[in-house]
Amino acid sequence: MTHAFYIGMSYAATGLVVLCLIAWVAVDGQARRRELKELEASGVRRMAKAAAAGDGK
Predict the structure, then answer these.
(1) Cα 13 from chain centroid?
(2) How far apart are CA 39 and CA 16, in angstroms?
(3) Cα 39 from Cα 45, distance rounded (Å)
């Protein structure tokens, strides 16, 4: 195994891990947005919106 091969494989492995993390965050973000829409549709409101409207204590 040459030095260049080791360096190349290290970069490739790191790139793969970073791409997997980006994909995971994107998919999880979509799931959270979907959950928020379902909660808002069922009548549950977000506290930040209530506080901004002056409904909070």
Answers:
(1) 21
(2) 35
(3) 7
C-alpha 32/C-alpha 30 separation (Å) is 5
Are 56 and 47 within 8 A, CB to CB?
yes
DSSP secondary structure of the chain = --HHHHHHHHHHHHHHHHHHHHHHHHHHHHHHHHHHHHHHHTT---HHHHHHHT---
Tell me the pTM.
0.65
Q: 34 or 57: whose pLDDT is higher?
A: 34
